[in-house]
Predict the structure.
Amino acid sequence: MDYLKLDKNALREELSEKRKEYERIREKDLKLDMSRGKPAADQLNLSDGMLNILTHDDCVNHTIDYRNYGIFDGIPEAKEMFCDLLGAEKDEIMILGNSSLNIMYDAIIRSFVLGVNSSCPPWSKLEKVKFLCPVPGYDRHFRICERMGIEMINIDMTPEGPDMDTVERLVAEDEAIKGIWCVPKYSNPGGVTYSDETVRRFANLKPKAGDFRIFWDNAYCIHDLYDDGDKLLNLFEECKKAGNPSLPYIFGSTSKITYPGAGVAFIIASKNNIRRIIDRSGAQTIGYDKLNQLRHVKFFKNADGIKIHMKKHAELIRPKFETVLSALEREFSENKILEWTNPRGGYFISVNLLDGCAKRTVELCAEAGVVLTGAGATFPYGKDPRDRNIRIAPTFPTVAELSEAVEVFCLAVKLATLEKLLNI
Ligand SMILES: Cc1ncc(COP(=O)(O)O)c(C=O)c1O
């Protein structure tokens, strides 16, 4: 049945059926949650070998005793492992603390207070600072901008990545545009991996602002669900080829590899950018947690060790994605009221409903005991102009919980859509 082809009487009949179903579900008093992009406990268990892996000798057998202060930009062993994984030189990376979002936040604050480079004033001296925000996107990127008073400009996502015609035009004509947020592989929330052409177009951008930076948040760089994962072109290499080595700040962490909040995070950038960051952030701390960096290196041994580990994550979360996707396929392949993404990695599935139906769907789910990420969260200022996008996070619940939660979700989508079509 396709609601878009039904007449008003048939829609009313369907609504009364679905309302009965909904009441039956509400009586179950469910408590389910598809809102949190967090690993489940069985994923965390995969890294428990790290918990007590370090010995005294591991820590002291270096020119610097790793238990003590020293080495600001990351221990050499960790740099080697991540450089190998991500394609950078050791003086193009810093390994810092436990959170990549923290590094992004600091990068923005530094830009406001101290400036991005010696030829451009700090952003705090400017009347206006703007960022491009591919949408739907990651709410915490948007929150940083909102807190700092940065004006956000929505850029539509396409199956190839952000709409590059608009990105190229805007950065070339407006000096107030200082950055763009990108989650280039298995984007949050759409699961889109930018095409080679998109990456090349990013590398060849000609921004009017001399201190424009691409904030390349590669949070899901090796988070494939299948053996033949998506391939993302190396932006940093492409920028070097294009004579634009200073353009990108590339961020990442092991939050969804080992432990969220207790992993290690890094930034990759040109040697000049890294030198400047070290110089400007040296006043902030004497050094980061080298023992955690060392723990990660000893646990994984090398870049291949990380890749093998990620296959174990995939085994655990693939069935969860498939549970949600097969339910959507079953319920909506004929009933064309919902479109969804089919990610091959990352942490999220993104759905688009008919315009004006997202908030109501989230509300109906909540009333039936299923928590979803708030409608609008995937847009700057929490405002989805079409009120149609919802992010589903399938990793944290069990498969059994997900089956139940997605059943409620599908029913809520149908109810919200019927109400919309009937102007109720
Ligand atoms: C796109 C993206 N970037 C960054 C983060 C947070 O990373 P971290 O734990 O390294 O701060 C997340 C977490 O969900 C994310 O989805």
